[in-house]
């Protein structure tokens, strides 16, 4: 796998080595050994999958400690714009984001470390989205910020009138008004 660094430290794009022939293709979608060596040592404990249609926007979500999560995300079918926002107070990149298009054709994966809010918008008619988490889902630890916060300047690549949100995602605070954020100087991976 090739690890592509982004403008925010720790947020990376992973491009697999694809083997194609007349029968189709093969690639190794995850290797714990290679991930630990090239990205960071992580122990993933939960895999999730969602199916969505064009215009669905999920985010921007995170989990607070002690249930903070890293995510390794990818698309099995369709295309999304996947976004990670740095919400670590004191970080030199606080409030900045990385956006990457993940598709069934490019087979890219996106690693979002702890301390970031995550979301995606569906660009294709339908998408099947999979992700690994390094901590279990804990509803009492949920946090989120508004997907359309003007300070974040995220172009979700969907007209606003076509965005489809859950009822919960319609009511998240702006980053400036968030009651809880991560501390850049805290080790979020300390056991």
Automatic annotation (TrEMBL):
GO biological process, one term: dTDP-rhamnose biosynthetic process
InterPro entries with a match to the protein in the record: RmlC-like, RmlC-like_jellyroll, RmlC_Cupin_sf
Keyword line: Isomerase
Pfam families linked to this entry: dTDP_sugar_isom (PF00908)
Coiled-coil segments on the chain, per record: none
Any one GO MF annotation of this record: dTDP-4-dehydrorhamnose 3,5-epimerase activity
Keyword DNA damage attached: no
Site feature: Participates in a stacking interaction with the thymidine ring of dTDP-4-oxo-6-deoxyglucose: 137
First-tier enzyme category under EC: isomerase
Function: Catalyzes the epimerization of the C3' and C5'positions of dTDP-6-deoxy-D-xylo-4-hexulose, forming dTDP-6-deoxy-L-lyxo-4-hexulose.
Name of the featured protein: dTDP-4-dehydrorhamnose 3,5-epimerase
Species of the source: Phocaeicola plebeius
